[in-house]
Amino acid sequence: MADSIPYNSALRCEGTLEKIGQLFMPAAFINDSEEEKRKLEHLIRDHHIGGLCFFHSRASAATNFEGKEKVVRNEDSLQTLKRLISRYQQAAVYPLLIAIDAEWGLAMRVENTQQYPYALTLGALQNREDLVFEMARNIGRDCRDAGIHWNFAPVADINNNPANPVIGYRSFGEDKHTVSTMVRRYADGLGSLGILNSIKHFPGHGDTGTDSHLGLPNIDKTWEELMDNELFPFINAINHGIDSIMVGHLDVPAITGEKGKPVSVSKRAIEGILREKLGFNGVVVSDALNMHAVSRLFPEKGMLEWKAFDAGNDILCFAEHIPEGIAMIAAKAAPSQVDEHYQRVLSLKEKALTSRPSPSELFMEAGMLNSELARETLTLYHGDAGVLAGMARRKVTGITIGRRPAETFLDALCPEVIQEWLFTQEISAPELRRRIGNQDHILLTLVPPRVKPQQNFGLAAEEVDLINWLVSEKQVILYVFGNPYVLRLFDMKKMKAVVIVYQDFVAYQEVAAAHFLGKFTTRGRLPVSLQK
Predict the structure, then answer these.
(1) Nearest one of 415, 416, 410, 488 to 445, comparing CA atoms
(2) Is pTM beyond 0.85 here?
(3) Residues of the chain with pLDDT > 90: what percent?
């Protein structure tokens, strides 16, 4: 547990350089080489680093932007993470704040850990926000047991751009009220276990068509438009008393006052808007400073770190030039400016490291929780229950396109209603068309290989063409085990029914099969529009 780590000394430091070091949060990689681990230990010890943000490996998405390096699976990642946290804490003069991105659980970064649904799935809940609280509690417990104090979640972005390449499934939806409610319940769930939250990505990354890992997204909206929509969940979260806000690398002239300047390095945006106008007094965290949206703008080592600090960020996340950044901040900043940032970080550390929730709390078992979430989110997007009932009473041909799901869904239906099941992973599209022949009633399951929209969610062109041929020529019922935005590729009006399952977990497949067999009705509602 986080509060059982043996610390070497008290939290508070006095020297200016030590205080500046406390503002830095470099990346730590679970599956790093021993040489890199020792380098990080020296950085922690020599520069009094305040915290670490853990990632899976240097080949993981947050650093390997172009995807050129293969991510190698490590079945022992969780135990490695726990050992590394203890090791790095021992190297620290002042206790480290340990952070991680665990929006849908530690599984976002760590193998063989519990995964829960994406935020977009949760957005389909109707009057069951209590389940979001329970999920966040479970995630908080998993973080606490691993030695993590800070979950960089939840996402408060309103995803109103179906083509968004980086948020999409990570958002609770396009309705500002739904997003605001879910953000609060998620933050409360973490807080009940003493885990810090971080609402992101201010002022809102939802209506963008650019991935800020790769470039600088532009949001050219008026202040009034932002206040009415994008800023709404952040204002609600501030009023709710959240711990921290992560600032995005976004070009929003209505916030910064100038075009082409990232919000994350804008004093007007952070000190002027976020703090003075919106009244946020908590900790401000920069989004990862290695992201190309900002890193390419400041080639001089240490300059980006200084600009982010001077703009008002308290925590400089994923800073890559720490000695140079500390030196530049020490040379340029007034002692009072350093102390203001440091005091906020110190207060957050004290909260995280002295929190001791009751160890006797009861939790909903993960499998049971996922099953309940599956039942409450399953969405009949198109068609009606009568069409489904009619299909379930006859022998149909089953087709799976995309990544082959687990056997659960198939086992529940075969051979009761399926006379044949065909997989595009095993049969080419032309051969599949031939095999279908004059069979008219098709139960189609779509399991997109990717959750992000790039390259048609990983679907081959012939697979997209096959689906469009099926819906134009056959009586098709479609179950989607993945990101619902994939439906934008098809003419849904020609389908007899479309059921969105959202996830391909075993629990979700069980619920989908039971639904097809008429054992219960859908309760969820799609939280986004598929057309802009």
Answers:
(1) 410
(2) yes
(3) 77
